[in-house]
């Protein structure tokens, strides 16, 4: 199905893991995809994969913390119909060990950049009067709490609250704002943790479905939230966690 024909989707952190999977899925659904990441080689590789399947993709190296550079990216790629805020980071550690620098690093990438990148894209959507869809990759940790995740949980809860507020404010402009909240998914970022068999077994015990999530399952959720089929969905969090947060 090519349900996003004629639309442009911009995905941050698109070079690997969830971001790459989401970019590929949006392209498969017919969108022209703008892939943004600090690592040019990774997003160009993803863009080439999209083109090899007949899709349209543009790779634009950009540090999402550089807001002036991001504004220039938007000026260069034209109107954006779908924004996927995927860039993020985590640094699990005990609460008493968290330094101000660690706190700032996690909040800057997960919250501050998401806020102001969304602001830049939405300003253009409002000016164009075309509406749009904003999707932020949150986490199951935006729904619950966990040991050694105090900063990450705080950041993702902030993203969830911001999403609800923006859904209310931007609804009259036809702009929908939602989050995807993945649970444990094996990606390049999480693979080192799951290499620890004790950690892996303990994690699987906590997931009612008894397995890790797949990148493709998260990507499918992004396509749904971008699609006209989700035209009445805003201010929501689509939790994809195998039942982890249901307990």
Task: Tell me what the structure shows.
The protein has a single domain (8-234), classed as Rossmann fold, CATH 3.40.50. 45% of the residues lie in helices and 15% in strands. The chain contains 8 helices and 7 strands, in the order βαβαβαβαβαβαααβ. The protein has helices at residues 17-28, 40-52, 67-77, 100-128, 150-170, 191-194, 197-205, 215-226; strands at 8-12, 32-37, 57-61, 82-85, 132-137, 175-182, 237-240. The chain has a 7-stranded parallel beta sheet, sandwiched between helices. α1 (17-28) runs parallel beside α2, α1 packs across α8 (215-226) and α4 (100-128) packs parallel to α5.
Outline the fold blueprint.
Layout: E1 8-12, H1 17-28, E2 32-37, H2 40-52, E3 57-61, H3 67-77, E4 82-85, H4 100-128, E5 132-137, H5 150-170, E6 175-182, H6 191-194, H7 197-205, H8 215-226, E7 237-240
Parallel strand pairs: 1-2, 1-4, 2-3, 4-5, 5-6, 6-7
Helix pairs in contact: 1-2, 1-8, 3-4, 4-5
* Computed Rg: 17 Å
How many H/I helices? 8
- Residue windows where pLDDT falls under 50 for at least 5 positions: none
On the 0-100 scale, what is the average pLDDT? 96
Which percent range describes the beta-strand content? 15-25%
CATH superfamily: NAD(P)-binding Rossmann-like Domain
User: How does CATH name the architecture?
Assistant: 3-Layer(aba) Sandwich
The succession of helices and strands, N to C, reads EHEHEHEHEHEHHHE
- Can you give the helix content as a percent range? 40-55%
Number of domains: 1
Question: What's the CATH first level?
Answer: Alpha Beta
Number of strands: 7
Pfam family, one: adh_short_C2
InterPro entries: KR_dom, NAD(P)-bd_dom_sf, Sc_DH/Rdtase_CS, SDR, SDR_fam
Protein name: NAD(P)-dependent dehydrogenase (Short-subunit alcohol dehydrogenase family)
GO molecular function: oxidoreductase activity
């Amino acid at each position: 199905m090519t349900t996003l024909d004629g639309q442009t989707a911009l995905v941050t952190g698109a070079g690997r893991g969830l971001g790459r999977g989401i970019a590929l899925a949006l392209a498969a659904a017919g969108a022209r995809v703008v892939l943004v990441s600090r690592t040019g080689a990774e997003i160009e590789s993803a863009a080439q994969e999209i083109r090899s399947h007949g899709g349209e993709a543009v790779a634009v190296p950009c540090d999402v913390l550089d807001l002036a550079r991001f504004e220039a990216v938007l000026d260069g790629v034209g109107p954006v119909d779908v924004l996927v805020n995927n860039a993020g980071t985590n640094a699990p550690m005990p609460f008493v060990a968290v330094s101000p620098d660690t706190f700032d690093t996690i909040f800057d990438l997960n919250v501050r950049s998401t806020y102001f990148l969304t602001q830049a894209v939405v300003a253009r959507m409002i000016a164009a009067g075309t509406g749009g869809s904003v999707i932020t990759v949150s986490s199951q940790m935006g729904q619950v709490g966990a040991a050694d995740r105090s900063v990450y949980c705080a950041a993702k809860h902030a993203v969830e609250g911001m999403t609800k507020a923006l859904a209310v404010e931007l609804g009259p402009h036809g702009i929908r704002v939602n989050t995807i909240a993945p649970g444990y998914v094996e990606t390049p970022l999480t693979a080192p943790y799951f290499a620890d068999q004790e950690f892996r077994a303990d994690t699987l015990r906590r997931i009612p479905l008894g397995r890790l999530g797949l990148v493709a399952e998260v990507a499918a959720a992004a396509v749904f939230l971008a699609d006209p089929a989700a035209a009445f969905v805003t201010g929501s969090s689509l939790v994809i966690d195998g039942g982890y947060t249901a307990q």
